């Protein structure tokens, strides 16, 4: 019997300008926003969430889109603007077919919100926290203190109403040997699930490293948008600090090439399909 099971879910899609995932170091906020990008040039990318089953724990990483952005499972401009604001709608459109929200997919495998021990919000971007209210009854919902502080200062980039009324538990990264900036948080205190700070896309973004018997899976979320990001060292177009973003991506590359890495996964990689990792 496997000791760890990781479900890789797709919870809808997001439509963005090519410069958001693959803008590189020389992109600018106008190109990344997509405000001047023709619809025909924009990309539809998957939005992922992950369920980690380990011993008696059920741990969810991010939430994907809420049903509110796509009430009938179809593209709905009005619903999206109401849910995420007109500005964010201009930058990233959404669609989530029926049955693909995280609560719908968890229900299909017999899991309710109250069964979830931890929801880990790697950062507070709209396509990562949109579905959080359907999981408000989870036992713990965690976000880094650095990320919440960053979100409060960057209101055009974030939609606070998505997590208003949710009991967010803040944690501080600790000084460790992990990650590009030697900052991490050991979720269970046994070094199996570590939240590793990878700033650059946002100040409080973290990767999730799941380790067992020296083998590991790395979820690096928006530290890069696909495997080609670290293979070709292409920075995402949205950043809070380009230098930190590059250093974080270099660490992702090093970890992904490590012989003990089973899989390393970006949140929006079109090559990654819904699957289950066991080890």
Defining key terms:
single chain, 279 residues, alpha/beta, Metallo-beta-lactamase, Chain A, eight-stranded mixed β-sheet, six-stranded mixed β-sheet, 9 helices
What features would you describe in this structure?
This protein is α/β, with parallel strands linked by helices and 279 residues long. It has a single domain, classed as Metallo-beta-lactamase, Chain A (4-Layer Sandwich), CATH 3.60.15. 23% of the residues lie in helices and 29% in strands. The protein is built from 9 helices and 14 strands. Strands 1, 2, 3, 4, 5, 6, 7 and 14 form an 8-stranded mixed β-sheet that branches. The protein has a 6-stranded mixed β-sheet with strand order 8-9-10-11-12-13, with helices on one face. β11 and β12 form a beta hairpin. The longest helix has 15 residues. The chain is globular. The chain starts with a strand and ends with a strand.
């Amino acid at each position: 019997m496997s000791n760890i099971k990781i479900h890789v879910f797709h919870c809808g899609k997001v439509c963005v300008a090519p410069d958001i995932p693959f803008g590189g170091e020389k992109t600018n906020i106008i190109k990344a926003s997509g405000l001047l990008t023709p619809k025909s040039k924009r990309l539809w990318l998957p939005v992922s969430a992950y369920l980690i089953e380990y011993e008696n724990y059920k741990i969810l990483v991010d939430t994907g889109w809420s049903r509110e952005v796509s009430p009938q499972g179809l593209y709905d401009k009005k619903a999206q603007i109401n849910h995420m604001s007109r500005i964010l709608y201009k930058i990233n459109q959404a669609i989530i077919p029926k049955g693909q929200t995280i609560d719908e997919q968890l229900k299909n495998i017999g899991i309710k919100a109250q069964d979830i021990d931890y929801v880990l919000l790697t950062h507070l971007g709209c396509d990562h926290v949109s579905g959080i209210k359907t999981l408000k009854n989870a036992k713990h919902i965690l976000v880094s203190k650095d990320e919440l502080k960053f979100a409060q200062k960057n209101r055009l980039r974030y939609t606070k109403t998505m997590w208003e009324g949710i009991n967010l538990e803040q944690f501080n990264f600790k000084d460790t040997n992990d990650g590009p900036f030697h900052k991490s948080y050991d979720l269970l205190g046994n070094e199996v699930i570590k939240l590793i700070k990878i700033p650059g896309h946002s100040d409080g973004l973290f990767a999730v490293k799941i380790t067992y018997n020296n083998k590991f899976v790395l979820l690096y979320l928006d530290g890069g948008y696909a495997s080609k990001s670290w293979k070709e060292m292409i920075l995402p177009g949205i950043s809070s600090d380009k230098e930190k973003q590059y250093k974080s991506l270099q660490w992702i590359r090093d970890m992904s090439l490590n012989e003990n890495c089973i899989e390393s996964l970006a949140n929006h990689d079109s090559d990654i399909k819904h699957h289950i990792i066991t080890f």
